[in-house]
Structures are given as C-alpha cells and as structure tokens.
Amino acid sequence: MTLSRPTSPASRQRGRMAWIASWATPLVAAAAYLLFWPIPVSPVPWEAPKDAGYTGAHQPNERLKGLQRIALGEGQSGPEHMVAHQGWLYTGLSNGEVIRVDTATTGKRETVLNTGGRPLGLDVDEQGRLLIADAYKGLLRVSGQGAQAKVEPILTKVSHPVPDDPVRYADAVKVGPGGTLWLTDASRRFGAQESGGTFEASVLDILEHSCTGRLIAQDPATLQARVALTGLCFPNGIAFSADGKQMFLSETATYRVLAIDLAKLSLVRTFDGHVGVPTIQQAMQQGAAKVLIDNLPGYPDNLMRGEGGRIWVGLTKPRSPVIDAAAPHPIMRSITLRLPRALWPVPKAYGHVIAFDDTGRIVADLQDATGAYPETTAVTEADGKWFVQSLHAHDIGWMPAQPAQP
Question: Which helix (H) or strand (E) covers residue 51, if one does?
C-alpha cells in the first residue's frame, strides 16, 4: 500500500487560489465587457411614465384577430405605410420596392419602382405625384407612371444644426395646408442605413433617448427646406386636424402623440429671445404644442386620417418593463446593448391599432395579443375597408370597416 504525502498548508492555499483564479478570470472579463466594451450609444437618463397597461380605452380585446390577407409576393415584406389613391393602395417594402394593389382586394398587384433604399412613409401631392420618405435616400418625388416614372430626390439635407446636414432617417411625409411638405427625420444620431436597418436604428435611438429627431418643412415649389422643430424623441407619423390648423405628431420613444399649432409654431422664440428653430420643450412652454395623448401602452408609429374624424395610429410593439425600469439608469441600457441581440429587451409581437379624434379621445381600439399580424403601424381606410400596415409582415392585412365603437 502506498501512502500519499500529506499536503502542506501552503500547497492547499495555492490550490484554493488557483481554483478561485480559474473562476474569477472569466467573471472579471465578462464584467469588463459588460461595463466597458465600446457601443454606439450614450444613453441619457429620463423618467418613463408609469405604464397603465391595457386599461381604460385600451381594455384587452380581439377585434384585430382574423385579418384577411393580400400576398405581397415571395420573399417580400414590410408594408410599413400605405396611402390610397385612385383605387390603388401604394406601399413600400423592405427590399426597396414600391408596389400598388387594388383596393377592391382582387389581388391585382403592380410594381411601381424600386428606390434602392427603404421606403417608409408615402403621400400624394397636389399634382398627383407620389412622395416617398425613404429611410436611406431622404424625401423622393415620383413623376409619371410605369416605365416613364421619374424618381427625383428633393430633400436629402437641411442646414440645421450645421450647413448641409444630412437627413439620416426619413420616416413620414405628409402634404399639409397650402401644399407644404412635412417630413420627420427620426434621428440625427442613428442613420437607418448606417445602423443596419430601420429597426436596428430605432432600437439604438430609443435606448439612447437623446431625442435628436426633428420636423422639417419644405416649400413644394422652390424646394427650400427648413427645420421647424427639434428635440423630438423619435418623431414618426404625421396627420392634420380637420381644419388644417393643427398637426398631430407621434413621438415613438415617449409613448405619446403631440398636437402642434402651426400658426403659433412659427412664432416660438428660442432661449436667446430670437425666432429660430425651437425645441419641443420651447414650443410647449410658449403654447405652440401640447401632449394630446400620453402614456400609450405601446410605441406609436404612423398616423393616418380616416373617415368620420378618425385618426389611426399603430402601436408597433407593447412597452417593455425592462426598458421602462432602465429609463433613469443609463448604465443598465449600456449593458443591455452589450448583450447578444437575442437578449435585447425587444417586446413580443402584439397587434394593436387605435383611432382618436381631434380632441385626443380614443374612438376605436383593436387588438390581437397573439401578434399574428406583427408590428402593426397604422390603418388606412379605403373602399369600405381597413387596411392594416406592418413593419415586418409578409402580406397586407385588411378587414371590412366596422361600425363606430362606444
């Protein structure tokens, strides 16, 4: 029998230290990575409103379930915004195509053009020309039809806050009173193309919450553009009141819809006492803007005026308790973005569109908790139907228009 030599206290101590080091080294490395690895965001602290959840006008329901579908074509997706014009429904897709389908839902489908970018918001100007807010290309205007269609970039940069400042994330476009073209540039920090796509850029901007978005106005004849409002937290959809005196603007990152008095906006003074480019805070302080709808249960996207005084807005995702809890804590959001993308706190799909009137009263609320039609961005009314938009769906959802809800 061979007897092992007794281990000395010093040897046992060295063994314990080696065991601790074998565990501590990767833990220290992981902690250093989560705390110090470079990321493209510099999160800003803010206070998210306490989420009221699906209460009040947003009681859970299944009114959005069972949507009928219009196929987009193999491999195509993302009818993020739709505008109805002369019996057609125009929409942009994630592969850069702008297509049109007939509102009679016969399945007739035509490709209008391919922008080579990511077309989002659409509108038609007073001359019948299609306007496209392309997240990669800026504001485009289309003249002619079919093979004769001419695509003209009419707004790719604006001189604020610096000369020839690029439009980095063209999101929504709307023709306003007098023909003025209004465009939201959702983020000056995260360009949609440079950040790897519209969804990726929106996540970065919302988690950073530096609120660099802006509202741009452009003269349709001279094409002179000016920044009308700054300091917006991912400004998105645009709509106008029935009398044209107010603009409604969805501010995605703050879960709210703003109402802006267009006449008063032009008179807002900056902090140095001059009429210039105001922030949203200055516009609110001087009575040119107010919060119309606050503390929504999700992220508001496009705005579309429908019939009977309705204005539709889609909530692309429900709110995330993790994101709300991390709002006052920049370090938590920095750590989040160092995690693998699969661990990012992106909420699950939840179909949800609502409609409100010019006073901000909710007049319709349609939900589908299964998210069968994902990332709902709004509703376009045409031909007695409600056409539902989506950031990522592979088809267009629709349902017959419903009677007014109580």
Answer: none
Tokens found for residue 380: 């376009």
Decide: 170 and 188 in contact? Cβ < 8 Å. Answer: no
Q: At which residue do the structure tokens 């602290």 appear?
A: 45
The residues facing 260 across adjacent strands are 247, 289
- Reference 394, options 60, 78, 13; nearest CA is 78
pLDDT in tens, 233-275: 999 999 999 999 999 999 999 999 999 999 999 899 876 555 5
The residue type at 293: I
Of 158, 297, 305, the residue nearest 246 (C-alpha): 305
Closest by Cα among 249, 262, 352 to 302: 249
Nearest to 120 by CA among 316, 346, 324: 316
pTM: 0.90
First-to-last CA distance in the chain?
91
C-alpha R_g of the chain: 25
Q: What are the tokens at 346?
A: 């992106």
Tokens at 203, concatenated:
């996540």
